[in-house]
Amino acid sequence: MAQNTVRNIKNQQRIEKHGTFARDMFRSKYLYLLFLPTIVYFFVFAYMPLYGLLIAFKDYNPYQGIWGSPWAGLQHIRDFLHSVYFWRLIYNTITINIYDLLVGFPLPVILALMINSVKNNFMKRSVQTIVYLPHFISVIVVSGMLVSFLSPSSGIINYLIRALRGKAIHFLAEPGWFKSIYVLSGVWQNAGWNSIIYIAALAGIDAQLYESATIDGANNWKQLIYITIPGILPTIIIMLILRIGSLFSVGFEKIILLYNPLTYKTADVISTYVYRRGILGADFSYSTAIGLFNSLINFAMLVLFNQFSRKISETSLW
Amino acid sequence: MIFQHETLGDKLFRLIRDVILLLFCVIVLYPVIYVISASFSNPLFVMKNEVVLLPKGFTLIGYEKVFSNPDVWNSYKNTIVYTTVGTALNVILTSTGAFALSRKDFKGRNFWTFYITFTMFFSGGIIPVYLLIKQLNLYDTFWVMILPGVISAWNMIIMRTFFQSNVTMELQEAAIIDGCNDLVIFLKIALPLSMPIIAIMTLFYGVDHWNSFFGAMLYLSDRDKFPLQLILREILLQNISSGNVEGPAADQQIVGESIRYALIIVATVPILLVYPFIQKYFVKGVLVGAIKG
């Protein structure tokens, strides 16, 4: 009897639980209608490619399809690890990133601090309008400008070098120059834009803090150290986590436009190699394996640094 | 703010700051001004590096060359179509999705947020996507320029955050009591309150479409469908992949020089025209909070 009652109550609870679930779903029906395209889009273009990653462990050929192609196990990843290009690709990918991290990461922070301290509104807005601008210029145009400016015969840079009695440099054919060209043009294009996030964070700092600090006699420098920097530190840390999390990935678009066999030695990174082997060489399985290897490292780096940051600074992405 | 007597140190600090900011602006602007001036200059002067700041030997020959090129016209038209159709769909789908995600009573909200953010940190990479596009028969179609990337996870999170803080639940509850359903709330309440973020999204997505070349390079083979950036690439960067970095071959060089700069201007002007109108929204803090998604 008692058991029956318990069972009855449990059943009733179950029904109620299902009832609320169904009711909630029904209540959300219009929200689901609005959200449906999002579900479909990410399923098709983000999750279906994850299934396609299977070919990293197969010898894919288009006629047999992803599932039908014969298994290859870890052979492709092993081949990549032993490939003559492996260390060169890793080295280039990391050094370009570190170069970019050292130059490209602090600059937006400094720029934001400087812009934020400008009191004259007209000047502030003009500087912002100017420094954000290059972000909106296409990679192709930036690359085209680089080719023109750096041309050994008619480029303005080499004109200056010659004017200073130097010898013209074939910038885009010299392996030694590639990383600088890549990183510095990137900084030119994005330093201003990347400062937005810090400017927004700076705007969020309570103005009263500065007022009371001024009353207490803190000068500009002290205010910077004790109010401003701590105020934007969480933002800086989050951006740093994201940046370090992508230490093993380099956007390939600009590299593909600017490199050539003469500069492969310093310019070829994992993503460009994947592009050449996969798309141009149609070596799908091998290049997918390299891409997967790269994605896994990136993901691991992100998790690792997020964990690390949570421990030392209590700031993290999740 | 309390005014205080400025110390010498503060004055010096300001002076140095202003000089650095000015220098920064010059570095950013100079290449842009140079390109504009060079596009209006006699190509011979450009080649001899006699154009420094202002146009020399004013001419429109570069622009004439650009506009008499049928490839440029056709690809320009294509880019306009891709950009308008693409951006419209981008903004519609991102805002509808973001609105649903912003609602605390959206059943399964946490799961769907994860469903989207996960894709920002782990992706299949270009090869599986490339094979998928071929499998879906999107290769070399109009839609391949629209559908992949039609929703950016990052933008959706930014927009969701905006809805959460600007379209409050109290407001929406009042509308529910008045008998509005969620579709009406979205159209009549959320959207009108969200014009700043919609303006920014339109700019972001629009610029992405206007400037993108990689998708077209991978997924299009029919020249008639090429967007402007691919034609730009052919003209601006034709020699570089073959290792000839000397610029255009000597006999075509003068013609080449005149067309290059004009082409850059023609391709970039639409963005430069729209940008100042939307730029004012950037600083309004709409982007803050986005990273702490």
Describe the structure.
- The complex is a heterodimer of chains A (318) and B (293).
- In chain A, 75% of the residues lie in helices and 0% in strands.
- Chain A is mainly alpha-helical and 318 residues long.
- Chain A folds into 2 domains: 2-60; 75-138 and 172-313, Orthogonal Bundle (MetI-like fold).
- The mean pLDDT of chain A is 89.
- Chain B is built from 13 helices and no strands.
- Chain B has helices at 8-39, 43-47, 61-67, 70-102, 109-121, 126-135, 153-166, 169-177, 182-190, 195-211, 214-219, 228-236, 250-286.
- Chain B is globular and about 70 Å long.
- The model of chain B is unreliable at 241-245, 247-251 and 288-293 (pLDDT under 50).
- The interface between A and B is large, with 109 and 100 residues.
Task: Give the SSE layout.
The complex is a heterodimer of chains A (318) and B (293).
Chain A: H1 2-27, H2 29-52, H3 65-68, H4 75-82, H5 86-104, H6 106-117, H7 121-132, H8 139-150, H9 156-163, H10 175-194, H11 196-203, H12 207-215, H13 220-245, H14 253-258, H15 264-267, H16 270-280, H17 284-313
Chain B: H1 8-39, H2 43-47, H3 61-67, H4 70-102, H5 109-121, H6 126-135, H7 153-166, H8 169-177, H9 182-190, H10 195-211, H11 214-219, H12 228-236, H13 250-286
Helix pairs in contact in B: 1-13, 3-13, 4-7, 4-10, 4-12, 10-13, 12-13
pLDDT average of chain B, as an integer? 86
CATH T-level topology of the largest domain in chain B: MetI-like fold
Distance between the termini of chain A: 50 Å
| Approximate helicity band of chain A | over 70%
Uncertain regions of chain A: pLDDT < 50 for 5+ in a row?
none
The gyration radius over C-alpha positions of chain B equals 24 Å
Question: Main sheet of chain A, how many strands, which sense, barrel?
Answer: none
Count of DSSP helices of chain A?
A: 17
Compute the CA-based radius of gyration of chain A.
27 Å
Rounded mean pLDDT score of chain A:
89
Secondary-structure element order of chain A, N to C: HHHHHHHHHHHHHHHHH
- The total of beta strands of chain B comes to 0
Low-confidence stretches of chain B: 241-245, 247-251, 288-293
CATH topology of the largest domain in chain A: MetI-like fold
Largest sheet features of chain B: none
Q: Please provide the ordered H/E string of secondary-structure elements of chain B.
A: HHHHHHHHHHHHH
Shape of chain B: globular
